Amino acid sequence: MKLNYFKSISLLFTFLFCVANPARAALITTEFSELVGNQGIVDINLSLASGENFSGFSLYFSETLFANLDIRFSPAAWDSIVVQPDALLGAGLFDSYNPAGLSSGVARVSFTYLSTLPFDVLAYDFYDADFSIVESGSSTNVTTPVPESSSIILLLLGLIAVALRQSTKRQQVAA
Fold first, then answer.
1. CB burial of residue 159 (10 Å; 0-12, 13-18, 19+)
2. Can you name the CATH fold of 26-141?
3. Coil, helix or strand for 151?
4. pTM of the prediction?
5. pLDDT at 6
């Protein structure tokens, strides 16, 4: 009876773990740094999963929050440009393209921030060689620590497994 109960609980935890931590093929993280006053920089980190291939991506900078975008650094394999935010045209963007496919890497863009801190996350689109959007999302700002729920869940599953093992041994000795 207890063994079936443990199996049900472990299946439930496994399901919740998978739902809470969906796999992402590609991810853009951003790290904002204030330089002086409202002048800042953002480090853009592109992480691609093994075998994942995107021809390009665009990272959008709201016209109400950013101005004076400038590329400070971009990997040689990325063909990068910036388009300035404009009240009439909309959001500005940092765009990188490589017809052979992008590689993981880090770029740096400077900007003028037009609002009060803290910085926001930025929206992005990944696209293929035909410029069709393949995936969209929002960057993760890495300046704030994020607790890793997966580590806690794994620890709990390990403790439950040890407790079940001890309980099974006690039942076998008593029998």
1. exposed
2. Immunoglobulin-like (2.60.40)
3. helix
4. 0.63
5. 57
